[in-house]
Structures are given as C-alpha cells and as structure tokens.
# Entry
Amino acid sequence: MAFAHATRTARPDLVDAGWPAAWRRHRGAVLALLADPDPDVRREAIPLADGVVPLLERWWAETDPAVRLPVLLRLGWVAAEAAQADARSVEEVRAVLDGVLRDGEPVMKVAAVIAWERLDPQEPVRWIDLLVETLSDLAVRPRFEEIWYVVGVEELGTLEP
# Structure
C-alpha cells in the first residue's frame, strides 16, 4: 500500500511509466512475503500489502502477536484510505477492531484504538479510560516491550516515565 499510495499521490512525471506493469508482475511474490515462515520478514512486508484484503488475510492467519500488532495498526491506515472505494472491506476492519477492543489483550486494545483513529478521530476519546488504565499499568509494560513493533521504526522511545 505504501507503494500504491506513493504512485497515486506523486506527480505523474515522478512515476515511471512501467511501474504499474512491474507491480502487477511481481505482486504475488511480494505479497508472499506476508506468509514467510520468519516473523521478521512478515513484519517488514506489512507496508507492501496493497489494500485491506491482504492485511485482513494476514490478520486472520497470523499467530505471532508481534506481527499481528503492526498488521492491526496498518489495517486502520489502509481502511481509512479505502473507505470510499471498498466499503465492505472497511466494515470488516471495523469488525476486527471492535472484536479486539472487546476480547483482546490490553496491548492489542491500545493498538486497536490507535487504528480506529484513522477511521474515526473521535474514537480514541471514547476509549480514554481504557488507554489511561492500560498505559499506566506497570504489569502490562513488559508485554508492550515484548510485542509492540512498528514497521519502519528502528527504535521506539522508552516506556520509562
């Protein structure tokens, strides 16, 4: 999606005329990285998912929380971009986010609130109690350090106050 977004928003003279054909030719191989046996490869491939559907597929197939979390964050971003073009997939993303907020572990709930913000900027306000409770719970801190991973960020800031 990062490539697709860049080619849609870049000045036409900055996008190689052969790009769309090259992407179509290699799309399958690129998306196969989302199912690679190595969780590090799967995590790094998340920005290459060009749309809601591949991310939803990864969400349902993924078992590693450190991969599921960035998929969840990306789902919010991609669904917001696709809101008018793919209403059905956006509704599926909303259902995923609702499910995580209802039944997920605390760290995933925080990610779901962040993902919701892209679809509805008022949603984090509705969940402020959950955010404050979770982010101030010292018992949850190790779980954040264990699974919170954002693709493309070398180092996150410390959770220390």
